[in-house]
């Protein structure tokens, strides 16, 4: 048994180094490999442990079937998913992780309390801490499952789950009621009820309540806040795994689960900071809804909007030296990244300096833009983060904004009563000309108008991002 | 691996400190459970006042075993300290890496597979095993899919 524990220890250390290395660009891929190796070691060690603990009965057929089916689906999902859909995929996978923890807890409880005949409470059979960890595992796992599925739906823009916040009447009271009854039933399961059917009934009830809670917690949060939610749910699924570790008494699970739990929370905080909002503000939800309902219609009228088209943009691009491209969610939706690179290539061939300005919360996932641009083979060193490029806008001839809105809204700088006041933005308004490629004047996620659209140096190019850029590329080619 | 890890000492100091604490706690626990003279006597007094003299020796032995830290406490130590390690691991991450990191951490949370394996350890037709079986599938999708997606996200930075 000693070597099995040593193997677990090795796996824990590899997980730590894996996460550590994942946080630096140069070593990230290696970090992922380390984590994979750790997982392999953990699975082999755990199978060996089971074979030693149950020499008579251990039968790996069921496990192997599950592993083969799961791996096949995993490979299929991992290989076929498009780059655009990766955020959704992460949400879905996260939900499956939560589901696994939930099922493990249910299975364990079912085996010890319902399939085994005895008239004792869970606290007597599993010890109080065992009962509590099982229930916590069910709770956190359940919330993670449905929370992730809702997040998945919102990111995908599925019909059954609108991207907009859904605010139920008395939502805080409902959630509070669900939490209170969950706690009450959990107490009954752990310390009071001894009959099998009673336990089974309560267990199902608690499971359903947790699943409902996951939905209730995520529906009031808008689509663009989903990265934060997924990061938080990821942290939850780590904690759920950790609780599973307490249930089956495995330290490796406790370690890696809490590592994920803690690092997930930190990542969540980093994301909130980038939007200049508190975690609470994100979780309460309904962001941008009040604004839209009170005075949205009145405010959305723009008086001084000048529009442009591909031909004019191409002509302007004939006489520039420095161009900055600001991608946003619109580029992701339209899958315009390849066209964007093509345009940049033409400009670079003419000796124009082309840089990309990446706002930390552009898109639907942190780093979303980087992933898309990298997919289109845009060199990594042309991508600049907000702080590195903000003082260059005043020297920029044209800033081309592709489907971004709130992250370039100058209201965040000077309008104190704006909901996004204080959020760091890209200072595109300082450049000589700003071209905004956007389908309409509709507001962004925050639901507020963007005075940039009617600024004197701004031109609106009303088009789908991909089509707009492709047209511009055609014009550029014909000019040359 | 260690050499390159040492190249950024500032961030690693915290990790090493936490790991030292971690193994320190395990070590102290090992030593205290091996020798443990004081609490043994105290516990012996508490537990066996009735049987008093006859089985003092046996009581001491039993009490010595009782002083071994219960698994729950070991688990809590480990839980708490790993949370600190987790906090220290991620302080400054370039936004580029937020998504891959999230995806990688998500794959790691699939470690719950160990629990799932335990639940599906016998091939008997019971509900508990069926649940375990489904748990194995879910965890495996999470792991394989998670690592693959992470790798695909990261491949793009290789240049």
Strand and helix layout:
The complex is a heterodimer of chains A (480) and B (159).
Chain A: H1 2-22, H2 28-53, H3 61-80, H4 86-114, H5 122-156, H6 171-192, H7 196-218, H8 226-248, H9 251-274, H10 279-284, H11 289-294, H12 296-299, H13 310-317, E1 322-327, H14 329-334, H15 337-349, E2 353-358, H16 368-375, E3 383-385, H17 386-389, E4 398-402, H18 411-414, E5 433-438, E6 458-462, H19 465-479
Parallel strand pairs in A: 1-2, 1-4, 2-3, 4-5, 5-6
Helix pairs in contact in A: 1-2, 1-9, 4-5, 4-7, 4-8, 5-6, 5-7, 5-8, 6-7, 8-9, 13-19, 15-19
Chain B: H1 2-6, H2 9-34, H3 38-47, H4 56-66, H5 71-89, H6 98-108, H7 113-119, H8 127-155
Helix pairs in contact in B: 2-5, 3-4, 6-8, 7-8
Describe this structure in words.
The complex is a heterodimer of chains A (480) and B (159). Chain A is α/β, with parallel strands linked by helices and 480 residues long. Chain A has helices at residues 2-22, 28-53, 61-80, 86-114, 122-156, 171-192, 196-218, 226-248, 251-274, 279-284, 289-294, 296-299, 310-317, 329-334, 337-349, 368-375, 386-389, 411-414, 465-479; strands at residues 322-327, 353-358, 383-385, 398-402, 433-438, 458-462. Chain A has 2 domains: 81-284, no CATH class; 302-479, Rossmann fold. In chain A, helix 5 packs antiparallel against helix 6 and helix 6 (171-192) packs antiparallel against helix 7. The radius of gyration of chain A is 26 Å and the shape is elongated. The relative contact order of chain A is 0.09. With 159 residues, chain B is an all-alpha fold. Helix content of chain B is 74%, strand content 0%. Chain B has helices spanning 2-6, 9-34, 38-47, 56-66, 71-89, 98-108, 113-119, 127-155. Chain B starts with a helix and ends with a helix. The model of chain B is unreliable at 1-10 and 32-54 (pLDDT under 50).
């Amino acid at each position: 048994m000693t070597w099995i524990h040593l193997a677990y220890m090795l796996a824990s250390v590899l997980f730590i180094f894996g996460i550590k290395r994942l946080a630096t660009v140069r070593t990230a891929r290696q970090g992922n490999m380390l984590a994979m190796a750790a997982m392999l070691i953990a699975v082999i060690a755990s199978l060996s442990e089971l074979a030693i603990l149950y020499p008579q009965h251990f039968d790996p057929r069921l496990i192997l079937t599950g592993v083969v089916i799961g791996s096949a689906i995993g490979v299929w999902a991992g290989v076929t998913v498009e780059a655009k859909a990766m955020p959704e995929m992460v949400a879905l996978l996260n939900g499956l992780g939560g589901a696994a923890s939930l099922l493990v807890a249910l299975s364990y409880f079912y085996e010890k309390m319902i399939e085994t005949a005895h008239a004792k409470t869970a606290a007597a059979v599993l010890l109080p801490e065992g009962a509590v960890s099982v229930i916590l595992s069910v709770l956190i796992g359940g919330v993670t499952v449905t929370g992730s599925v809702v997040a998945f739906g919102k990111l995908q823009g599925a019909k059954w789950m609108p991207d907009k916040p859904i605010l139920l009447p008395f939502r805080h009271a409902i959630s509070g009621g669900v939490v209170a009854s969950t706690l009450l039933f959990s107490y009954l399961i752990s310390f009071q009820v001894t009959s099998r059917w009673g336990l089974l009934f309560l267990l199902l009830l608690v499971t359903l309540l947790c699943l409902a809670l996951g939905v209730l917690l995520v529906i009031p949060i808008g689509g663009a806040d989903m990265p934060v939610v997924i990061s938080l749910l990821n942290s939850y699924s780590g904690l759920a795994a950790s609780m599973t570790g307490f249930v089956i008494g495995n330290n490796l699970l406790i370690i890696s689960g809490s590592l994920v739990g803690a690092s997930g929370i930190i990542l969540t905080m980093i994301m909130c900071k980038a939007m200049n909002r508190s975690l609470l503000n994100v979780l309460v939800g309904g962001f941008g809804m009040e604004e839209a309902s009170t005075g949205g219609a009145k405010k959305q009228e723009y008086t001084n909007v000048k529009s442009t088209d591909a031909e004019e943009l191409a002509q302007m691009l004939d006489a520039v030296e420095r161009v900055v491209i600001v991608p946003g969610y619109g580029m992701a939706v339209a899958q315009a990244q390849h066209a964007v690179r093509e345009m940049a290539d033409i400009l670079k061939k003419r000796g124009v300096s082309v840089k990309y300005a990446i706002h930390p919360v552009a898109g639907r996932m942190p780093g979303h833009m980087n992933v898309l641009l990298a997919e289109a083979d845009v060199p990594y060193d042309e991508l600049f983060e907000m702080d590195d490029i903000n003082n260059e806008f005043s020297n920029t001839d044209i800033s081309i904004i592709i489907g971004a809105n709130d992250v370039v809204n100058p209201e965040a700088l000077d309008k104190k009563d704006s909901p996004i006041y204080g959020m760091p933005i890209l200072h595109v308004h300082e450049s000589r000309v700003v071209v905004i490629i956007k389908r309409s004047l509709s507001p962004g996620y925050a639901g507020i108008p963007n005075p940039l659209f009617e600024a004197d140096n701004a031109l609106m190019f009303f088009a789908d991002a991909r089509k707009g850029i492709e047209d511009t590329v055609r014009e550029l080619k014909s000019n040359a | 691996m260690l050499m390159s890890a040492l190249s950024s000492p500032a961030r690693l100091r915290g990790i090493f400190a936490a790991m030292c604490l971690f193994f320190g706690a395990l070590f102290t626990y090992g030593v205290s459970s091996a020798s443990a003279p004081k609490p043994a006597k105290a516990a012996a007094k508490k537990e066996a006042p009735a049987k008093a003299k006859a089985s003092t020796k046996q009581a001491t032995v039993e009490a010595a075993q009782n002083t071994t830290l219960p698994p729950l406490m070991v688990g809590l130590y480990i839980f708490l300290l790993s949370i600190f390690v987790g906090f220290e691991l991620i302080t400054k991450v370039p936004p580029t890496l937020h998504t891959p990191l999230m995806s990688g951490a998500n794959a790691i949370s699939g470690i719950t597979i160990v629990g799932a394996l335990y639940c599906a350890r016998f091939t008997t037709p019971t509900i508990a095993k069926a649940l375990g079986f489904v748990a194995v599938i879910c965890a495996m999708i999470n792991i394989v899919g998670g690592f693959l997606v992470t790798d695909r996200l990261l491949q793009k930075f290789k240049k």
